[in-house]
Amino acid sequence: MNLKRVLYAFSFAMLFTNAVDAQDTKSDREKYNFNYGWKLNVGDAPEASKPVFDDQKWKAVNLPFAWNQAEAFKLDISHLSTGIAWYRKTFQLPKEAVNKKIFIEFEGVRQMGEVYVNGQFVGLHENGAMAFGIDISNVVKPFPQENVIAVKTDNDWKYREKSSNSPYQWNDKNFNANYGGLPKNVFLHIKSKVYQTLPLYSFLKTTGTYVYASDFNISNNKATVNVVSQVRNEENKPVKVQLKVSLKDMDGKEVASFLGDAISLVPNETKELKAAKALQNLNFWSWGYGYLYTVTSELVVDNQSVDKVAIKTGFRKAEFKNGMVYLNDRVIMMHGYAQRTSNEWPSIGMSAPAWLSDYSNSLMVKSNGNLVRWMHITPWKQDVESCDRVGLIQAMPAGDAEKDVTGRRWEQRTELMRDAIIYNRNNPSIMFYECGNESISEEHMSEMKAIRDKYDPFGGRAIGSREMLDSKVAEYGGEMLYINKSANIPMWATEYSRDEGLRKYWDEFTPPYHKEGTGGTTHSNVNGSKVADASAYNHNQDAHAIESVERWYDYWEARPGTGERVNSGGVNIIFSDSNTHYRGQENYRRSGEVDPMRIPKDGFYAHQVIWDGWVDTEKPAAHIIGHWNYEKGVTKDITVVSTADAVELFVNGKSLGKGVQSKRFLYTFKNVAFQEGSIKAIGYDKGGKTICEDEIKTAGKAVGLKLTSITRPGGTLANANDLALVEVEVVDDKGNRCPTAMDMIDFEVEGKGTFVGGIAQGPDNYIGSKNLPVECGVNRIFVRATDVAGEIKVKATAKNLKADVLTIKTVQTDLQKLSTVLPSDNLPSYVEKGPTPTTSSFKKTRNTIKIAEAKTAANQADAAKSFDDNELSEWSNGNGSPKIEYTLERKATISQVVLKLSGWRSKKYPLKISVDGKKVFEGITPTSLGYVTLDVTPTKGNKVQIELMGTSKDSNDINLVEITGKVDEAGLKKTKAKMPQLPIVEVEFYEPIR
């Protein structure tokens, strides 16, 4: 059995093997976990805002808890329950809270939340995406009196802002799974009357504390740490205040402390306090190296400490120039995932405990992804902080559906971006702010950039939008499905693969024998329209993994090091199967490289191979797609994904020769006959040296079940909300997983836990069922801890298989209604990849020869548009001759011509290319996702002529028809010209490196 598959069953445990313990972030009991002790009622209860209301029959819940979360993956996105739900909680303030400021912080409410404290209305929040805070100082009662907080929520898809009657663009049935109520954390802050404000602009109009580094000297581990804290005086007298800052490393050791200037504040005055110090021996945050410091800003009044704010942050340098992204002075090519912001799981929706967010997000890093682009709306703070810990770069949107808007809907987007930047600007993993899921106007882009410049001028974050290919304002861009190159701002694809594949389906030769393309042609979209033929999107695991590699090739071919105009990568949609719009027979999106329970599909391992490195491959690897447990007589093509220069395949030690290489990373071996035993792939470099290998062994007859737990580091918390993942495998007598097993498993849970469930193909997707099958020999369920510490006993049984029993110990925690244990306390960082390497991330592969001028007898005025580094401009011949000649800046031996021709995905052009009058190429261009590289006869010269030799031909080699049925024309423009057209968007000429 493939060792990788065994290891990944324990991937989360491995994640923390080399981790460094994080420092506790409690701020002297000024911030409390407010998640415990709530009551829930689904439906309207008009009197529930009153303190005397009887809620004894309401359901007891601990937050985060969406009232409809049990429907996750059971119902499709458009059928998730909506309506009004009320949450209530009684609580006492601590004795020491007398004459203090009291703030409540909600990480989010969906969609609307009316907040009442002791019967008084204190605030209305409506955008459904962002955190907000409310000052409740004047309505709470001091100890020992009880207080009642009540929150009315409404998650109607058609909810409209009360003041304007405007809908929210991002409350969209296609993209934003509707988990209603209070699906995120809630905190209570107790502060003195002279205090550092909270980073919660809506309601409070405050910006909190801003921590950033400047004056980087990466090679010598030096930088200046800056702290800017907004301070307010609500005493009735002037005060003299000063900021004292301390830094602790991840071992809890104080590495620096320093003071800022002292200033005076009159009553009700708000000012910013600043402190800065140049530091040495810093560890810089990096990809897969979530090194974080605890920066504590202490407010000193008359030599007395009155307020502390502890911020966990990291320091890193980022630049966006020359068409590339630089992290800590090293070029990094973006490769990762466009993930739904809900990041949901079966039966619990998005309301996962913090450690589970780490587990999920760390798997993106384990697959060698370095970027997650959260889609359409601002991510949950828990996920933002999780990405800090696991070393995963983030692109943070504000709110959008799929187009620019005007009026109040645009104002809503700018307000959300403002609030999101203020709230998240101390999180080092955020390197991109996304202003829209499609291009926006230059005026709107300027507005967004001004917001970034006002609230996060020093954070090292680029602001841009999907597309924005010719923007003079945006700092990055990139289309959705196509390749873009630039010598200026980085261009990376915001989602480059839409294909889907259920984990259950290995290939066409393994039960249940999924034929390529099956499914997805008889369903309706969430908006009621009929789904176009989506068979090209519906794959088994073999085909899905191969498609992912083929798509990546186009980006890799244009990577940094290949010229002055380069591509900066892209993100695959999506990482985990999502409860959002879909094209298959299941009612959820199956585009993930892992399934909804985060069990890897073959595409996970394929990405692990092709993405191993910042740009160029750093650790050669190979992965055999599929398994080796076929029925007798099966003969099939075997595909190996590898970064080696050649791959040889062995069956039971006998060589089948070298594979046929395609798309650089794919090696195909035709008609391989199954023989019980082993199949092994060995990869070689150009000199024939073995540099990597992969092997799969045939598993024996299934004899039993094996249970494994994946739990919170430090133990599952007995808080009635923490979860444990329990993996069940069907195994042979040696403990190897049987990859074709589909046995039905019966689960029993006893002790201090309750059964939650998992997912599988079948009725209601088996959501909540205690009986569900393994798929490809494995599946997972959740169990939830009770609020009493002890043991959870999980038993799994199946017909004709030996049962297994697993025991999970739970640990007691602080369950007070004002708990001092925060959800992310003591979660370790992932640092396995180590600090940013000091070496170059790529080797230059060729030299660009610049173009001095272009001449043509057809549309000469547009000739320069064919090499202007603007992918929204082009030259075409119109009614003139389809011929153009370029004069190069110097004579050079031209070996490659790279072209972007309009209609790149559906048109093939017959071309002849000459250098100084000598024909160096004659042939038909292939289709692509943007650019084609033509190898020409190496010829020295400085004049290159490109001529169309006939009419372009249509091709359907690349099928990217959207679910609406719309076919993107890939830049083709309508023309009435009678001549065949040669539309050149960009042309580039290269010579080999001497």
TrEMBL record:
Residues 634-691 form the DUF4982 domain. GO terms for biological process: carbohydrate metabolic process. The keyword Magnesium does not apply. It comes from Flavobacterium seoulense. This is Beta-galactosidase. It holds the Pfam family Glyco_hydro_2_C. Belongs to the glycosyl hydrolase 2 family. Coiled coil: none annotated. Residues 81-158 form the Glycosyl hydrolases family 2 sugar binding domain.
